[in-house]
Specification:
The chain has 174 residues and is mainly beta. It is built from no helices and 15 strands. It comes from Dromas ardeola.
Length: 174
């Protein structure tokens, strides 16, 4: 999320038409089209953040600026040439790194929170812990994970958060 994404559609000699068909998981479909005989591009229901990266007559690559969760879904490029139609399908998955917070609760326990990540983050502790993480799903598809470390004999605890977007750790003394 937040970065640009580029989906490559290999150009072919003698292209007569190129169409990107986009079906996001949320919201309605959109399309970008190019007709070589008229040297004309067309767009239907696509936001300004979705566009050709280059001139479609030379390279029909698609670029999505500031990728958000709403961009997740199916993207198919169709290239029409005299020999037939060629399809290049993609499924765009959007990763959202969680916000990591580590704090002490009223009982002196360490609490590690990986907020609003997509997919849900995994939380572990440097020292073994019998805590079962709690997950809370949000309407936008992100998940907050909360894990509590009950310390009996140690002062400093370290929380480790693992996620496809990266790994982080924080330490605290409660």
């Amino acid at each position: 999320a937040g970065n640009s994404s580029v989906l490559i559609c290999p150009p072919k000699p003698n292209m007569t038409m190129v169409t990107w068909k986009i079906s996001p998981k949320v919201g309605g479909p959109c399309s970008l089209g190019y007709r070589a005989d008229q040297n004309k591009t067309d767009r239907t229901n696509c936001s300004d953040s979705i566009n050709w990266k280059f001139r479609p007559d030379r390279d029909p690559t698609l670029e999505i600026l500031q990728v958000g969760i709403a961009h997740e879904g199916n993207y198919t490029c169709e290239v029409v040439v005299p020999e037939g139609n060629f399809h290049m399908p993609y499924y765009l998955t959007v990763l959202v790194p969680p916000r990591l917070t580590l704090y002490c609760d009223d009982q002196g326990n360490s609490v590690c929170e990986a907020a609003a990540g997509k997919p849900a983050a995994q939380i572990s502790w440097v020292l073994e812990n019998n805590s079962t993480p709690k997950e809370e799903g949000h309407d936008d598809g992100t998940v907050t994970v909360l894990s509590k470390f009950t310390a009996y004999s140690t002062n400093v605890t370290t929380c480790i958060v693992s996620h496809p977007a990266g790994n982080w750790s924080k330490s605290i003394a409660c």
